[in-house]
Amino acid sequence: MPLLAEVLFYLRGLWLLFKADPAHARYLDFTERGVARSFWALAYCLPVMVASELVSLTRLVQPPIDLTLVALLRTALIQGLSWMAPLVVLGVVCMVSGLPRAFLKIIVATNWLSLPVNVFAALAIFLIATGLQPLATIVLIVFQTVLLGAFLFEIRIVYMLMNEKVLPTAAAIIASAITALLVTDIGTRYIVGG
């Protein structure tokens, strides 16, 4: 499991990639080993993702669900699927677009980008769940702004990794976003029994 220093090293590479700085290649490992290591981001994120989802479902959803082992396992499964399904769709788009080499790079970048996004999202959900007004409202506004920024950041990264081709980038982003939203929506309905 990568230590914090290595994770911060990868996040620096993401920032350099966003800025189109060629030095990003020294920070991000786009080899098969790097792809495999990037999935450690899921190991870091999954506990935070599951905890924040359970806080949402037990504190913010009406009526709240009961916190059981089944709900915990379902939530972990859905969070894992919402991580993996968009990557599969991105792979298909990369193959159809004739950019198969971009796929491994996109996996590395999006996996490591998910780490700060999920940590911040969890922090925001926990603060919103406290119900402290107006703090919860301010946090919600900041949270939505950060999510929009992360989405734009990901668009830029995918664009750079797809050799600055607009149509494949648009297809990849739209397809992966729709897939993630569908998996999350269907999964949440499954958890709450709707």
Please characterize this protein's 3D structure.
With 194 residues, the chain is mostly helical. It has one domain. Helices cover 82% and strands 0% of the residues. It contains eight helices and no strands. The radius of gyration is 17 Å and the shape is globular. The mean pLDDT is 83.
Task: Give a quick summary of the entry.
This protein is mainly α and 194 residues long. The protein is built from 8 helices and no strands.
- Count of the domains: 1
Query: How large, in whole angstroms, is the Cα Rg?
Result: 17 Å
Largest sheet: none
Tell me the overall shape.
globular
Work out the helix count. Answer: 8
What's the SSE pattern?
Answer: HHHHHHHH
Helix content: over 70%
Overall structural class, as computed from helix and strand content, comes to mainly alpha
Strand content: under 5%
Total strands: the figure is: 0
Low-confidence stretches: none
Report mean pLDDT, rounded to a whole number. 83
First-to-last CA distance? 37 Å
Tag the structure with descriptive keywords.
194 residues; mainly alpha; 82% helix; 0% strand; globular
Structural topology:
Layout: H1 4-18, H2 24-27, H3 32-38, H4 40-60, H5 69-96, H6 100-130, H7 135-161, H8 166-192
